[in-house]
């Protein structure tokens, strides 16, 4: 005869297979093997660590390793992931970023706290910090030349269509005005060296400008991020009046397709190869001397195969000056770009992402970007 504990454990494993319960309630990771017996949901191990930090809201156990009481199993059986989402996600603004299992700890933690602890998506008034269309506060910003982080006043104004920052608190004129329609924001904790590090990019004189910021309070930083997304969402609603929310949401912010070091040579291909930090942002391949440089040293537009763009493994036989052995050649209508990777694995990864970009047909607005690159000095 099964003991009560064995029966409970078997029932928990059966409950994991129910619709909605087979992926993490918070980040969507497959095969979650932890559960909260106070919320009635299943989650992955990484999200379970965040739940452990809010014991007043969520008490968790391992489905496989811990003993389960009959009352706990019955409660979870009566709830489950789908019911919990119906309860805690009643009024999520379309622009609010829903993290996945590949996102950083900060985004996942603030999403979990917003849902269960602060109940932001049940009480709409709690969304004001990022949905009001105006936000003002101080962020630590990295100096362009000295690399020091200094406190700077930032203002996000949907009405003005801009994010501004000021070098002095009482300054009348902003140091920079970043137009909402050119802004992107992406969390970069490893690069910035702070768990709440955010990289904001915008176009200045048709070149991509990077700024790096953080705030000690994680909620504050995620509120800024979602505030930027809200401002972009409302800008795009006006710019594309017929577009649906699902059409616009992917355009609000984007993570980079890939970043890392490669070597490159110049247009004559007789100069020595230099090690550079590369960022692939949609079709723009930018390269920097240092990962935290304000401006790229150069940018390469990567179009589609229909427009004579090709990616080839290796380098032309006559190539010299590369220390790294694993080459990649990008052929564009104008010239060949030569890169070298340190390892075969890096070469394979870069080749894969370049190939995906080249295989994707170009959108009408991307032809305008391509034309700008051709006329760049």
TrEMBL record:
Keyword Lyase in record: no
InterPro entries, per database record: Arf-GAP_dual-PH_domain, ARFGAP/RecO, ArfGAP_dom, ArfGAP_dom_sf, PH-like_dom_sf, PH1_ADAP, PH2_ADAP, PH_domain
Keywords: Cytoplasm, GTPase activation, Metal-binding, Repeat, Zinc, Zinc-finger
Main location: cytoplasm
Signal peptide annotation: none
A Pfam family this chain is assigned to: ArfGap
Name the record gives this protein: Arf-GAP with dual PH domain-containing protein 1
Organism: Conger conger (Conger eel)
């Amino acid at each position: 005869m099964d003991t009560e504990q064995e029966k409970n454990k078997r029932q928990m494993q059966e409950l994991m297979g129910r619709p909605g319960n087979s992926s993490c309630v918070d980040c969507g990771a497959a095969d979650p093997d932890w559960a909260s017996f106070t919320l009635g949901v299943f989650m992955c191990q990484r999200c379970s660590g965040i739940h452990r930090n809010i014991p007043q809201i969520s008490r968790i156990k391992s489905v496989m390793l811990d003993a389960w009481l009959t009352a706990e199993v019955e409660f979870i059986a009566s709830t489950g992931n789908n019911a919990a989402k119906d309860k805690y996600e009643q009024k999520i603004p379309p622009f609010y970023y829903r993290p996945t299992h590949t996102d950083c700890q900060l985004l996942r933690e603030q999403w979990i706290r917003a849902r269960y602890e602060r109940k932001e998506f049940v009480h709409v008034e709690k969304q004001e910090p990022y949905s009001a269309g105006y936000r003002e506060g101080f962020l630590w910003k990295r100096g362009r030349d000295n690399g020091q982080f200094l406190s700077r006043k930032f203002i996000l104004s949907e009405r003005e269509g801009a994010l501004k920052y000021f070098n002095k608190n009482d300054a009348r004129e902003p140091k920079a005005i970043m137009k909402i329609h050119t802004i992107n924001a992406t969390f970069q904790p490893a690069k910035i060296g702070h768990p709440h590090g955010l990289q904001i990019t915008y176009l200045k004189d048709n070149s991509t400008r990077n700024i790096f910021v953080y705030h000690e309070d994680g909620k504050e930083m995620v509120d800024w991020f979602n505030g930027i997304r809200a401002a972009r969402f409302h800008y795009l609603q006006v710019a594309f009046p017929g577009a649906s929310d699902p059409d616009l949401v992917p355009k609000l912010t984007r993570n980079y397709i890939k970043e890392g070091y490669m070597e490159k040579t110049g247009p004559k291909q007789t100069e020595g190869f230099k090690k550079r930090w590369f960022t692939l942002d949609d079709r723009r391949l930018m390269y920097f001397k240092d990962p935290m440089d304000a401006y790229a040293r150069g940018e390469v537009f990567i179009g589609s195969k229909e427009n004579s763009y090709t990616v080839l493994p290796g380098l032309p036989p006559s190539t010299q000056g590369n220390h790294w052995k694993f080459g990649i050649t990008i052929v564009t209508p104008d010239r060949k770009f030569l890169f070298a990777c340190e390892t075969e694995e890096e070469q394979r990864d870069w080749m894969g992402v370049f190939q995906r970009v080249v295989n994707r047909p170009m959108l009408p607005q991307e032809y305008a970007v391509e034309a700008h690159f051709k006329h760049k000095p």
